[in-house]
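hey can u check if this looks right to u? its 286 residues, i copy pasted from the old doc so theres a chance i mangled smth
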Amino acid sequence: MVADSKVCVHFVTLLSILLLKAGNKMKPLHLVGIINMTPDSFSDGGECENLGRALERIHQLMAEGADIIDIGGDSTRPGSVCVGEEEELRRITPLLHALPDGVSFSVDTHHASVAQFAIEHGAMMINDVLAGQDPEMFSVIAGSHVQYVMMFSRCERDHSFREASYPCIIESVKRFFSEKIEQAIAAGVAEQQIILDPGMGKFISDSAEDSWRIIREIDSLCEFQRPLYIGASRKGFLKLPLEQEVTERDILTAHVGKIIAQALNSRVPLWLRVHNIASQRRMLQE
């Protein structure tokens, strides 16, 4: 509850600091719509588990302005259990076969075999929340031309979350990226393939302060000269006092997306992964 009550204070602080840094210039960015073919994702579990509903949702997201659809078959929310590669493939395969022509898609997976399958079926991006913990992942990416999102996270391959505290969260993120970029390039991944996701919410720690700190200092990640990928949508650090549904976080999600876009000030490309494309697009146009 204490963290919840600080959301508005954090938001006002961000507006005053980041908008002063940024001015009004914003580089065109990419909006990523979310499709979870899972029964247990934290925000929309079960919503698109059925193929027909998933296709309807994709049509809606594209109509609202999504540039790409991120498809997941294995929830990594806190408390989830890794379903394994076979079940993950069973969940996403029908959708990959049924996707309409012209729909660009990524697959959210930390399994190299699933990434390979997705690439063979036309994925333009692999979104890896474990940043290459699968020892074969970098080799799979190196053998392709897809974009590769590597995320800073305390999540393990079995979906357990290790305890984490940081003297300085942004410096920890930078060290992590430096090490992972070096490892990926050594494995043959082209630097141009790499996109960096600093993580948000429970993926990084139990403290909402850490997520807000990353947002406040997001522009410092431009030093890597790589595109950034932000997945703050509906995360727990955005929880509002007295909220009834997680969808109530969409407006604050949209504000955070715009603030980050302005803070980056056209220095690197930006991908915003959100549940509510229409809300985010409206905010960016205001």
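The chain has ten helices and eight strands.
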